[in-house]
Specification:
The protein is of the alpha/beta class. It has 12 helices and 14 strands. The protein has an 8-stranded mixed sheet with strand order 6-7-8-3-9-10-12-11, with helices on both faces. Strands 2-1-4-5 form a 4-stranded antiparallel sheet.
């Protein structure tokens, strides 16, 4: 049985805004084992990125504030660590690839200097050793003529190459967990496929665990062992990836899957869409946050927010009062 690396329990994060307090994450709990690949999916604003930033204490305070919960990494709560302690975890043991490769790199520092900095900080090696390691990393992620490209600046790299540099930097200290926050969003589809294949290959070679944050269910199907679906700051369904696609149990997950284009449709038809708008989280939901948009909604859904509970076998859990196979309340 694989050892548990990460155990997040009851995480809640809020943001103070001029319009009021935004309840971005509302009691999220999940685990991650050694070597496991977890996909976190949901539409923009559902709390995917804020959840992972909160675990690493990267939420800007103010306006953000982590108001409840724990994030245990190998048994130690990262949320209680001081600045020096959490810096030893970030980058060295848990690395994160941020959303936009165009803005994640410092435009006035060469790629070589940006790659050498975490190596010298976390691994205590010399500048020359860091240079050699940087060349190895760039070659590993498929950057041609790596030694010559170290002196170049980010604007001299294409979008796909910049994302490869970000992956190389994230892997530089051999982390146990890699968090990839929508790393292919700004790239064209051919480069997206290359990045996904690259991460899958590196995971197999290095044996690290991965958390892949995305709104693209197609990517999740190819990279994840297990999937957590988020909506309104909650995890509303969690399942092994094959079970989620074969038998989704939450109306929101069904809507996401139905909205994917189908290449085998015999006749032309409009893409499915979920009616309504995502919730405005100025108040923490007391009822099911998806109720206003749900075609299965019952009276109970307006009165109480369901908890994430096991359903059937194989670790499939869902937070819903309705059995979507029958349309009746559980």
């Amino acid at each position: 049985m694989a050892n548990q690396l990460l155990n997040v329990r009851g995480l809640e994060t809020q943001f103070n805004t001029p319009e009021g307090i935004v309840h971005a994450v509302n009691g999220v709990s999940f685990t991650l084992d050694e070597g496991e690949s977890l996909g976190v999916v949901g539409e923009s604003g559902c709390g995917k990125s804020v959840t992972m930033l909160s675990c690493l204490k990267l939420v800007p305070i103010p306006p953000g504030k982590i108001v409840a919960g724990n994030a245990f990494f190998k048994g130690e709560d990262m949320l209680t660590m001081d600045s020096d302690e959490i810096r030893k975890v970030r980058g060295a043991q848990i690395s994160m690839i941020f959303q936009d490769p165009m803005t994640s790199l410092n435009p006035v520092m060469s790629i070589g200097n940006q790659m050498a900095e975490p190596l010298m900080l976390h691994m205590g090696i010399t500048k020359e050793q860091a240079r050699k390691r940087s060349i190895e990393l760039l070659e590993m992620v498929g950057i041609p003529q790596a030694a010559d490209r170290l002196k170049d600046y980010p604007h001299q790299y294409s979008g796909g190459m910049r994302q490869r540099v970000m992956i190389a930097m994230a892997l530089s200290c051999m982390p146990q967990i890699l968090i990839a926050d929508e790393p292919t969003t700004a790239l064209d589809v051919t480069i997206q496929a290359q990045i996904v294949d690259l991460v899958k290959r590196l995971r197999e070679e290095l044996g690290m665990a991965i958390i892949w944050i995305t709104h693209d269910l197609g990517v999740v199907a190819s990279i994840a062992n297990r999937v957590s679906v988020m909506y309104g700051g909650f995890i509303i369904e969690e399942s092994p990836v094959k079970d989620l696609y074969a038998e989704p149990l939450h109306p929101y997950t069904i809507g996401l899957l139905n909205s994917l284009p189908k290449i085998n449709r015999e006749e032309r038809q409009r893409l499915y869409s979920i009616n309504g708008m995502p919730p405005m989280l100025f108040k923490k939901p007391k009822a099911c946050p998806f109720a206003p948009r749900c075609e299965f909604v019952k009276d109970h859904c307006w009165q109480e927010n369901p908890v994430l509970e096991s359903y059937g076998r194989g670790g499939h859990r869902v937070a819903c009062w309705v059995d979507v196979t029958t349309g009746r309340e559980r």
